[in-house]
């Protein structure tokens, strides 16, 4: 059924469907399939069962195939988790692990919350202002509604045709930037339908700017004078303001200038639809004849966030820069004596609200970078609580890459340690005890000192490579070389310094040496009293 009709001021021309069974018009249609079978076939159940059995067999085969690696993995995880210190009871280590699991749960929940907050973060707009001596001018469209193309009474040679003149407050003429629009291409529609519509567009080049300071410049405001039939008191002038790069009139009427227009074809078509239906309300004003009006504006560079995933990060966001204009308008009441002293319809002054460059930057309220900062803070707090409760544990200089490496990479790490830190039967510091003995052979004092020196040398190399920065020690060595070993300013005059004929470790064994029997090895005493240092054994080279 096709129907046409109207209700008050609204007109309808649509296709609708009437349901005779319910005697009502249908607003929507719901499709349903009543013949759909909700039961599951037996074949589907059998297929799922067979697939589950096959998947279980594959998992069992993989476990049997890689059981060695799985055992090593479980053992390694166990060693990384269960680390009771020597002399520490089991309940202390158990409590530490339970607290770690609890803190890990809190950390994961907090991490989920802040990531979800960053993903669902709303966009906020920040206004940034920079002081500027010059400001761009907008595009201004004047549409004369109800004014005839020619006045019935010609005064002083003026036909009374609608027209616009432009001048700045410095006397600079900008009328050359005004062009008449071809209404045969597109004509705006106004609901009052007062009569013929004639439009003019003020579109200045990019080089034309308004200046706040006085001197040799274009001026600080635009003064538009409107002309038309003075007898047409019912006519109106509709004023529309656009940023230069967002003026659809330039595309519709093909102004043929070098100023780019960022609007897409779809945006222009939507604008034309709104113009035909008289639905434009933003930056559109109506001026009565015989009035003075003032319009202030701000051109804002609005940087919108593009809907891409990178903008959730919060670093170097991807934006679209679109100029927008903000206006304020004021118009006085018509002056009944205006036409006695003026031959124009009225005057409007257009000027910047502020002498600044305005940027509206759209940003995410919460980003992943913010989440990273929150995560670091909560993680540090949980670690501090853990240390406060169960004490500090030294961290290994090896990372995950070193600790969890396998195969040739693990072998290369071990080979590097073995080649750079060679040891003999003196043992490894902090692993083998100092009093370790291999057999019941009585050692001489020189052999004992040599063992201690080897262990100390290995310990120093390990500390230098993995634990301690030796920059200060090397600086001290360079200082001693520069000033000489005999004049050491770092040692007080009363401080005892070992003499050249005394070994650095001899004081550890002086007491034992004095109590030694006469049957001691004479070579040991000679080695302890010699002035030369005892180095690592030849087999360590």
TrEMBL record:
Spans traversing the lipid bilayer: 44-64, 97-115, 368-390
Protein name: Uncharacterized protein
Skewed-composition ranges (Polar residues): 499-532
Region: Disordered, residue numbers: 483-541
Keywords recorded for this protein, A-Z: Membrane, Transmembrane, Transmembrane helix
Native organism: Rhizopus oryzae
């Amino acid at each position: 059924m096709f129907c046409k009709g109207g209700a008050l001021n609204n007109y309808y021309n649509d296709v609708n469907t009437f349901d005779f069974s319910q005697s009502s018009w249908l607003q929507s249609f719901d499709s349903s399939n009543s013949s759909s079978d909700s039961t599951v076939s037996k074949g589907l159940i059998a297929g799922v069962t067979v697939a589950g059995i096959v998947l279980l067999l594959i998992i069992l085969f993989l476990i049997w195939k890689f059981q060695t690696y799985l055992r090593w993995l479980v053992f390694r995880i166990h060693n990384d988790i269960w680390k009771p210190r020597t002399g520490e009871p089991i309940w202390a280590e158990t409590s530490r692990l339970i607290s770690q699991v609890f803190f890990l749960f809190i950390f994961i929940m907090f991490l989920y919350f802040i990531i979800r907050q960053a993903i669902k973060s709303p966009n906020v707009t920040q206004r940034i202002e920079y002081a500027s001596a010059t400001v761009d001018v907008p595009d201004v469209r004047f549409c004369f509604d109800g004014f005839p193309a020619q006045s019935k009474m010609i005064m002083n040679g003026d036909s009374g045709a609608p027209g616009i003149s432009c001048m700045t407050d410095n006397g600079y003429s900008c009328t050359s930037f005004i062009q008449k629009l071809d209404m045969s291409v597109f004509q705006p529609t106004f609901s009052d339908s007062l009569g013929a519509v004639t439009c003019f567009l003020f579109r200045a080049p990019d080089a034309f700017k308004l200046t706040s300071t006085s001197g040799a410049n274009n001026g600080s405001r635009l003064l538009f004078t409107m002309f038309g039939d003075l007898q047409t008191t019912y006519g109106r002038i509709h004023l529309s303001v656009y940023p230069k790069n967002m003026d659809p009139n330039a595309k519709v009427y093909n102004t043929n200038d070098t100023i780019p227009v960022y609007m897409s074809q779809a945006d222009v078509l939507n604008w034309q639809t709104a113009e035909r239906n008289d639905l434009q309300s933003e930056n559109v004003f109506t001026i009565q004849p015989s009035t003075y009006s003032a319009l202030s504006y701000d051109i804002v560079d609005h940087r919108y966030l593009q809907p891409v995933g990178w903008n959730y990060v919060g670093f170097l966001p991807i934006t679209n820069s679109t100029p927008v204009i903000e206006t304020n308008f004021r118009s006085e009441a018509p002056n009944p004596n205006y036409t006695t002293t003026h031959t124009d319809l009225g005057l409007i002054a257009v000027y910047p609200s502020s002498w600044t460059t305005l940027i509206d930057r759209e940003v995410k309220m919460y980003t992943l970078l913010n989440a990273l900062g929150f995560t670091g803070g909560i993680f540090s707090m949980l670690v501090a609580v853990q240390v406060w409760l169960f004490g500090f544990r030294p961290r290994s200089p090896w990372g995950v890459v070193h600790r969890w490496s396998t195969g040739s990479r693990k072998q290369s790490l071990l080979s590097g340690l073995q080649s750079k830190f060679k040891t003999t039967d003196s043992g490894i510091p902090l692993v083998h005890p100092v009093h370790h003995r291999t057999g019941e052979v009585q050692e001489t004092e020189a052999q004992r000192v040599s063992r201690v020196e080897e262990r100390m040398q290995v310990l120093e190399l390990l500390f230098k490579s993995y634990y301690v920065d030796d920059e200060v020690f090397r600086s001290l060595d360079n200082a001693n070389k520069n000033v000489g070993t005999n004049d050491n300013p770092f040692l007080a005059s009363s401080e005892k310094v070992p003499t050249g004929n005394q070994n650095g470790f001899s004081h550890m064994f002086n007491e034992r040496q004095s109590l030694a029997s006469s049957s001691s090895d004479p070579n040991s005493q000679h080695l302890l009293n010699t002035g030369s240092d005892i180095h690592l054994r030849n087999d360590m080279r």
